[in-house]
Amino acid sequence: MKKPQPPRNPKSPAHPPPEPLDRIDRKILNRLQRDAAIPNQDLADAVGLSPAPTSRRVKRLKEEGYIAREVALVDPARVGSTLIAFVSVELDRQREDVLRAFERHISTQPEVQQCYFVTGETDYMLIVVCRDMDHYNQFVRQVLAQEHNIKRFRSSFNLQRIKFDTGIYLEE
Fold it and tell me: What is the mean pLDDT of residues 18-31?
């Protein structure tokens, strides 16, 4: 027979709070952000631990949500997606249901690489990646022009990428 469990405190979190990051955790995260495919032995050498504790730390960092996911970053130019547009979108109405509907719709568009709800004169900032201007024109006509709640949008186009980094630097 199972031992009765004490009632859960509804204010306590479902999961224990994550452990604070120490210097080694930050070194691991910095290194993995540069190369998530690094072999565990090389990672261990880089952070000054043996392989087993390094592996346990990486597993914990994943379980606690510090590592959200591992991806391969594809060079847009190498795959023919040379047009990057920064699109500011102003909505006609800003009710919660309308905002959620816009966010759901824009999140399904493969050309939209990033979408931010922002302060200022516009409501959203999009980063849109397309093959060329014809592809962007098609995106505008099929996606933005069909969204009835868009009051206006403005596009700026990338001329040259000066810096591109996906890492969040953690002071070691």
Answer: 92
